[in-house]
Design goal:
alpha/beta, Spore Coat Polysaccharide Biosynthesis Protein SpsA, Chain A, 11 helices, about 20% strand
Length: about 270
Amino acid sequence: MLAILLSTYNGERFLREQLDSLFNQRYSDFTLYVRDDGSTDTTVDIIHEYQTKHENIILLHDPRQHRGASGSFMWMLQQIDADFYMFCDQDDVWMPNKVGDTFSLMQQCDLKKPTIIHTDLAITDENLHVTHPSYWSFTKKPAKYSASYHYHCAYNNVTGCTMLINRQARDIAVHIPENSPMHDKWIALVVSYHRGTIRYLPYATIYYRQHATNVIGAKKSDSYLRKLQSLRELLRKNGQWYRTVKELTNIPLPYFILNKLKFALLRALTK
């Protein structure tokens, strides 16, 4: 069973396009689970509207509101029993081959091991005009480091809305530390740390919409070298993530800093 987890919050503007793209997938054997985070617009009404058209949509009830995107996804991951999981943002558009292609690659892996399949993204403006064909290239976070635990201590190149994970990955990652920034970064770190499998498709399967209210977006690394000039700034920006990494791996702070500097330099040298 494949569970697609959709977290919504005041998403009425783009939600229909995302839902239409889900139900236009070439692979359609999935259940869509939706958790709303306390919307005050017509988001929930839109979900109810689509429930009348599609039997495989389940709107979950959570008495707690305003968990945020990461908290919402992790809550759903804890509640839902499935063999495979995908994460869906409310404002993107999935290409018709997304579910089928990632699921096909998943089936080629040793499913006894924690496994992640992910893909590139095509960055678009709010009207879905492609502004850059590759998120990995735009952000200088190459996919070749996807399976590297050391890389995931420093950066994340496994974007949540492209991820497909199996139950084994879910089981080791489901209890996220409170200080962890985002669910995808945590899941990639945990799976790489436990020597799981992280594989990727070398092409985009999502139109990654950028607009004024993105929670997380595609940010270019123009000013990163200037930030690295100050160790204090580096520690301030990465202190939260270091505490998360240390809780899992007991990594010493000096190694964390040197590892971060190493991959920051490689990132700066990436054309």
